[in-house]
Amino acid sequence: MVPTDALVAFAVFADHLNFTRAAAELHISQPALHVKVSKLATTVGRPLYRRAGRALTLTPEGDAVARFARDLDKRMSAFLDEVRGTERVRPMALAAGEGAYLYLLGGAIRAFRPLKLINCDSTRMLAAVRTGRADLGVGVLEAVPDDVTAVLLASYPQTLVLPAAHPLAEHAELTVRDLDGLSLVLPPASRPHRKTVERALRSSEVDWTLAIEAEGWPLTLHFVTLGVGLSIVNGCVRPPAGFTSRPITDLPRVPYYAVHLPARTDDARLAELVTAVRESVSAG
Hints:
The protein folds into three domains: 4-84, Arc Repressor Mutant, subunit A (Orthogonal Bundle); 92-153 and 255-283, D-Maltodextrin-Binding Protein, domain 2 (3-Layer(aba) Sandwich); 158-252, 3-Layer(aba) Sandwich (D-Maltodextrin-Binding Protein, domain 2). Helices cover 42% and strands 22% of the residues. The protein is built from ten helices and twelve strands.
């Protein structure tokens, strides 16, 4: 028999992938949480998470247990509402990155209620969908995993953000070779966008310098407006006043997908949220 309190504890742990933060949310000690997770793993007969350096990730079995725990919690809440004669509309959880919220999903957020927002990168977005923490995820995917249903929302060119008076702004389109000699504001070296850009610059033998590393489009654009350097961003990102953007034709386009579990395909409320997201992106 799987203890319900252990399932509840593991669902919270799966949200954080951090024993300290999960224990604090549960108002129990960290050793007590370790015991609950360990006993649950023993009951299941499989490891539920693995450690890679300082980071923790769920195993496939851990994903399944977290998903089951959240589904059980939703069913229990619905059952209690039915018994008590109350009716509550559960917020739908949407997982996406800061850029998607700022530049693509405003219309969906205004149109759909109630909504819970989870701010995360594409890797954590997929994890949130797989474990049931998020009903729907929106993000950039280079390849669509086999275990989720993905709907292509839009595909954008990668663009150079530059002052409207910059000589390169005279061109309608640019190539990677046009970036020769530029100083660029880019994300940290571990980020997929940085790797793609550096690979293209290296392949075209472009001479460039790193002006500064910045995480997130708003901070990146802030440094561009300060004159620190120019930057390459996804085409959905709107340049600030006094600046413009030009597509770089030989960089790969950036596809944004809406992602959910295949078992949720016939969920009416999820379908409404997907529609709201698609309309928001189309209106972009």
